[in-house]
Amino acid sequence: MDTYRRAAVPPQKLYIGGTWQEAQGGTLDVVSPIDGQKLTTIESASAADVDRAVAAARAAFEDGRWSRMAPAARKKVLHRIADIIEREALALTVLGVRDNGTEIGMALKAEAGSAAGTFRYYAEAIDKVYGEIAPTAPDVLGLVHREAVGVVGAIVPWNFPLMIGAWKLAPALAAGNSVVLKPAETASLSLLRLAEICAEAGLPDGVLNVVTGEGRVTGESLALSMDVDVLVFTGSGATGRRLLEYSARSNLKRVYLELGGKSPNVVFADAPDLDQAAKVSAMGIFRNSGQVCVAGSRLLVERSIHDDFVALMAKHAKALKVGDPLDLSSQIGAVNSDTQLQGNLGFVADAVKEGGEIALGGSRILESSGGYYMEPTIVTGVRPDHQLAQREVFGPVLAVTPFETEEEAVQIANGTDYGLAAGVWTGNLSRAHRMIRDIRAGVVHVNTYGGADNTVPLGGVKQSGNGHDKSLHALDKYTDLKTAWIQL
Ligand code: ADP
């Protein structure tokens, strides 16, 4: 690992049509959140650069070099991508961690490990998902074809670039599309390396293009393109809103949004093992410094166990070692950027002004390292209408609110604009099912928090977005249905 962590990272380029190119828009510095030092530069793609990438993707799609390749051959390429990701897992993950700050223990599984698994999952789907013959009258034949949509634009965030990148790329490529990928400014490096891996695995030139740069320039140009058929996105609600506007102002491209959450984690007094519930719940909010879209950032706890449970949470949270994300003993790494860190601290200060009390943490730590580290923070006395109960922090900050009854728990749980994830801790099976039914969210965890695999979809309701990543349902975003109606 030491070799990888010290390796010089050369200035990066754009990957367009199978070649590495300079942007007309200049370069951006990449600063490592581990120590605040400059790591390298990435290109800042202008509208003209993005247009070239979209044109390369369109040309590749139209000539059929990938879209009409035999499914079994496409499947082999995706498996090879997974093989190389596994072979390179450590180097790839360390590169990503130097860029985005996630603790290496988690990143190895959640980034390289999960990306490889995702490519395999959709590789296997390629020759197993196909069209239908409709039960029509006997003198006609109704065929329902499932076709690739064409050019997919994918804009991804910085918290899990490889994992979320793979959630978009693998099903899009499996279905035969070409892709233009726009990584986040503060987490481009591992995705640029993934482009090289895809080429080595035999993905034809032009099928995957990577354009780096700022959201308001590069991302906006991609979203405004007249030749992108579908735009898939994971990121903030504010950007999601803009993408819908860009679609309306351009070619009405379909837009699928996986936005944030303010996910309730509801603990009832009848939970089977409160200590275990506290331990898992602490990881459910604090891993990756809280920079997880499904993070259980609101703890709703039955009043009779409130004080005891907060004490248990504080015990487990305090035991989590925050530090250099490339030190294997660190359980929590760095916050992604200084901007993000200042935002987190601002949320805590505002919460105190609104009447919240800091039960644990609240501050920046390890400042002398030059990096961006924050201690796990628990704020109690947060009322459902407080900002900390309503707005996504995307940092290691937990808001705690007591409740008296199941009905009140549901009401508070549903009382935000978001609907991405939730947790319920109870030993009562009927209550667990009632909560699953009544909480408006894309995923409800019961007696655990945060786990899932490729077999189940992930997507939000309300202002947490639309459409799903993962599972065979994700293919719906990347395919069109075409009917053939044939008179016999
Ligand atoms: P966060 O606040 O978590 O950084 P963002 O929504 O700002 O979330 O970023 C997620 C991704 O969206 C990044 O790749 C970013 O560059 C991109 N992005 C940000 N603003 C825009 C925009 N106006 N148009 C297109 N993409 C954008």
UniProtKB/TrEMBL annotation:
It holds the Pfam family Aldedh. It comes from Thalassovita mangrovi. Keywords: Oxidoreductase. Belongs to the aldehyde dehydrogenase family. Coiled coil: none annotated. One of its GO terms (molecular function) is aldehyde dehydrogenase [NAD(P)+] activity. The active site is at E258. InterPro entries: Ald_DH/histidinol_DH, Ald_DH_C, Ald_DH_CS_CYS, Ald_DH_CS_GLU, Ald_DH_N, Aldehyde_DH_dom. This is Aldehyde dehydrogenase family protein. PROSITE patterns: ALDEHYDE_DEHYDR_CYS (PS00070), ALDEHYDE_DEHYDR_GLU (PS00687). PANTHER family: ALDEHYDE DEHYDROGENASE-RELATED. Residues 20-483 form the Aldehyde dehydrogenase domain. CDD domains: ALDH_GABALDH-PuuC. SUPFAM superfamilies: ALDH-like. The keyword Oxidoreductase applies. The keyword Magnesium does not apply. It comes from the Bacteria.
